[in-house]
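[step 3/7] inverse_fold.run input=structure_tokens len=84
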């Protein structure tokens, strides 16, 4: 997560790196935290997922997917198995 990131990275991330004039390390950290949150949701560790999602939003308040998952965990029942 704290690796040095540059334009020699895996090709999938290259459009983001070329399009946005932000620090590569920060973008990499946001991406890693988001993926770790999704993994925690997948294994049922909802509180840890919420913490990772919170960290993503602190670094990038406009991260759309994180906002959607945060809203889902806070206001809906699908991801955490509650009955509506």
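[step 3/7] decode complete -> sequence:
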């Amino acid at each position: 997560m704290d690796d040095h990131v540059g334009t020699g990275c895996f090709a999938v991330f290259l459009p983001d790196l070329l399009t946005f004039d932000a620090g590569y390390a920060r973008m990499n950290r946001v991406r890693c935290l988001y993926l770790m949150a999704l993994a925690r949701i997948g294994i049922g560790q909802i509180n840890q997922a919420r913490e990772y999602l919170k960290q993503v939003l602190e670094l990038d308040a406009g991260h759309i997917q994180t906002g959607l998952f945060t809203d889902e965990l806070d206001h809906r029942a699908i991801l955490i198995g509650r009955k509506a």
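[step 4/7] annotate
The mean pLDDT is 79.
Helices lie at 14-19, 24-42, 46-59, 64-75.
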